[in-house]
# Entry
Amino acid sequence: MKNVVELLVETLVSLDIQHAFGIPGKSVAPVILEFGNQGIEFILGRHESGAGFAAGGYAFAGKRLGVVVGTSGPGGTNLVTAAAHAKMNCLPVLFITGHQSAAETGIPQCQDSSLFGIDLAEIMKPVTLFSTMVSRADTFPAILNHALREAMTGRKGPVHLCIPFDVMISPVAETNIHIPSSRLNYAATNLTDVVNQVRAARNPVILAGKGVVLSGAQEPLARFAAQFQIPVVTTPGGKGSIHSMHPQYYGPFGLGGHQKAKHLLESDVDLMLVMGSRLSDTALAGLDRSYFPQKIIQFDISYEFMGGIIQAEHTHVFGDITTNLEELLRLYPNENVSDDVRFGERYHDPLPELQSLSVAEVCQAVGDIIPERTTVFADDGAHGYHAVRWLDVKPGVTFFFDSYFASMANAIGMAIGTKFADRDQNVICLTGDGCLFMLGSEISTCVAEQLPVIFIVINNGQLDMALKGMREFTGRTDGTVFKQPLDAAAYAASMGANSARCTTLSEFTDVFKQALQLNKPFVIDVIVDKEEIPSTLARQMKLD
# Structure
């Protein structure tokens, strides 16, 4: 008869999970040992948050479940931010934490995770789709089955199981863990209505969000936009939903957006096809209510965020975006709804004029140099919004930016997890000195595992987005400048990574090309102009 951890790991193996992330401790030792017994490689992180982000990256790139393990008490609480990030970005991750023996519940214990201590199951409930403590072995199969279904079907996301030590090693009856297909393979029933509305519209526009990226719907979206001749703009998180050179692409909108996209949305749009966007404040920033469309067709896998944000006549298209777009293309293969074809072109607002290197120049260079089969993670901060505005996404390039939960340093772990999930991908992490101060130690994990991830660190010695916003609106910059700036190149070298420091565009392009060829962990410390205006603030200043 198997015990609980044997059944758990056997199930994970059946789901083609080859790596798990985390930091060990006494209460989770049986799980980690069983990983080794059944051939799942356990990747030792440097902090639970970084390991949790890595599990999210593994889920994102591998289109499968990510797994992260933390010990009881603080090991679990250190995972909360990564769980919240996974929830807000629809990443299926199983968070496993431990607890001392259930038989000793109620006795004061070190790192108590029960309701007599810090109650990890309750703490994790708001940041996951499902969280519970497994108090009995005989209930484990049903709980595991439910948790995996919650994580991997519909609007995906994280789940959490806190398993006491004695429950982990208790015998459990044989059971059949069955997970249905993670993709909704049936199309919505109102696609004919969608096409009729598009045909009747004078000025339709597609607003593409992160749901397109998460669904892997970039290719059918590109064909749909071309076939129906509808202009496309992207939200900050939806950057990469369509490649930058697509003739129908008008650029990003919202925070970090282009003026060209703004002008398009102010051109009397009567129908907006919203694809995979919650229509958050970052997505709609800069669009006055007077320019809101009269009608909205909203594609989403859940009804949770459909309607109510923009006051307009709504049509809901429920289901997987890829499935629905492919069905539209199948049903209407020869559609050509407009005689007035408006072709886009590669476009950027004018580059800033600065005394030294700008982030805009760096982002443009990255977009120009990276090859196909590259994933770029833009971390949260001013540099992320600069990337939204200035970095062109080629066909075959994936771009990920969390503009919604917006956790600093998430991209560092995400990049590492992605490389484990797909060794053939080039993986670039565009991060900042503030993010590196938080979770830069995960570069040590990257070096230890010899993962050829390139970390581009935008370094200006300050929390740039906070500083510029505070200075603009309050005249003060309290707490936004690092009194001791980070030498990111030296920091990386201390962990064994290849590194270089750049102060000019030519230095950066040379080093970046070298890093791509070297195929080893590489940190590029890019010293940029402190006075460059963040794309977010530039948009706000123009609106005011």
Remarks:
- Residues 538-544 have pLDDT under 50 and may be disordered.
